[in-house]
Amino acid sequence: MKAKLKAKDLIYAGAFAALYLILMVVLVTMMGVIPITYILRPLVVGIVCAPVYMLYISKVKKFGAILILGVLFGVVTMNHTIFSLVTAIIFGIIAELICKSGNYESKQKMKMSFWIFNLNMIGPYLILVYAKPQYLAMTESFAGAEYAQAMDAITPSWIILVLAALAVIGGMIGTALSDKLMKKHFEKAGLV
Asked: What residue segments make up the domains of the chain, in order of their start?
C-alpha cells in the first residue's frame, strides 16, 4: 500500500465527504426543529453516516483521508465558533491514527476510528459549555424565546458528557449496521 494520497484518492475523498456532509447537514437541519431532537443529533448522525465513512475508508486506505473528512466537517459546522473546527481536527487525527495502527485493514480499528470520529458532533455544542448565555441569546433571536428556554432547560452544564456518549453509541450502532450493509450490498457489488 502506497502511503501518499493520489488524485484518484482525492476524488474519492471529495465524493465521500460530499455525501457524508450532505447526509449530516440534512439530518441536523431536520432535527433542529424540536429541542429534544437537537440533543439526539450525535446519536442519529453516528447511525446514519457510519456506512458512508466505513465505505470511504475501505476505498481510500491512506493516511490523510480521514483528516480531510474531519477538516471539511469542521469547516461546514463552524457556524458561530471555532470549536467545531478544532474538535474536528483533533478527533480526525485521533481517528486517523487508530486506522493507521491497523494498517487501514483492521475492521475493528476502522470501527473504533469512527467511534472517535463521530465525537466531531460535539464540536458545535461546545458553545453550550463556554458561552451558553450568548448561544441562548442567538437562539432566541432566530427561533424565539420559547425555543431558547426549552434549550436552556435541557442543556445543563454536564450535557456535553451526554452528547459525547451519544456520539460514541451512535458510532457503535452505525458501524454494526455498516458491517451488515458492507457484506450484503457493497461487497457483492464489488465496491469493497
From this structure: 7-186
Mean pLDDT (the chain) is: 89
Could you give the CA distance from residue 38 to residue 36 in angstroms, rounded to a whole number? 5
Cβ neighbours, 10 Å, residue 143: 15
Provide the pLDDT for residue 30.
92
Question: Distance (Å, rounded) from C-alpha 67 to C-alpha 110?
Answer: 14
CA distances from 73 to 23, 77, 158, 184 (A): 12, 6, 24, 28
Between CA 26 and CA 74 the distance in angstroms is 16
Report how far residue 158's alpha carbon sits from residue 84's, in angstroms, rounded to the nearest whole number.
Answer: 18
pTM across the whole model: 0.87
Render pLDDT for 36-77 as a digit per residue (tens, 0 to 9). 898 999 999 999 999 999 999 988 888 989 999 999 999 998
CB atoms within 10 A of CB 5: 16
Looking at per-residue pLDDT, the higher value among 183 and 102 belongs to 102
The answer to whether residues 77 and 21 touch, using CB atoms and an 8 Å cutoff, is no
Short-list 51, 67, 145, CA closest to 100: 67
